[in-house]
Amino acid sequence: MPVEEVFIGIGGNMGDSSNIVIQAIDCLTKLTNTRMKAQSSLYLSEPVSEIPQNDYVNAVVLVETSLQPLELLLELQAIEHAFYRYRDPNLKWAPRTLDLDIILFGSRSLNDSHLKIPHPEMQNRLFVLEPLFEISGDLYIPGLGSLKYLIDKAPAIEINALSTISNSADRK
Length: 172
Prior knowledge:
By secondary structure, this protein is of the alpha+beta class. It has one domain (4-165): Alpha-Beta Plaits. The protein contains five helices and ten strands. The strands form three sheets. Strands 1, 2, 3, 4, 5 and 10 form a six-stranded antiparallel beta sheet that branches. Strands 6-7 form a two-stranded antiparallel sheet. The protein has a two-stranded antiparallel ribbon with strand order 8-9. Strand 8 and strand 9 (145-146) form a beta hairpin.
């Protein structure tokens, strides 16, 4: 079965967000037919929402997987559920314990009712672009441009690197 590189965005702003993000990264290292290749530092960023809420802790990881996109999505949603993620359909950018998003899946484009790849908001999210740049360099994203270009054009938000976390790939 072919293996593809997939970038996954991780974030949360309820509870001990730094610890939850670190635990979620550990969960990602245990996914079936998936291997962790790289992970970014943790970043603290202001919310992109009019809903009053705490700042987010974010990171991006790179995995290799032979899972298909929808299989991976279901695995990510199971991890979110294990961390008590609740989705209110009326509050798109509400606070959350954990959010796991497929940002890029190889060179695939997908647009269906369950999943859109590349992630449709990535070019507007410095909390995705900065950690993605940290682990991938100036990647070119078809239809969007280089990461450096996207970072320069993204809406400004307050974002700061918190820490470098030990590489889970090194622990295997």
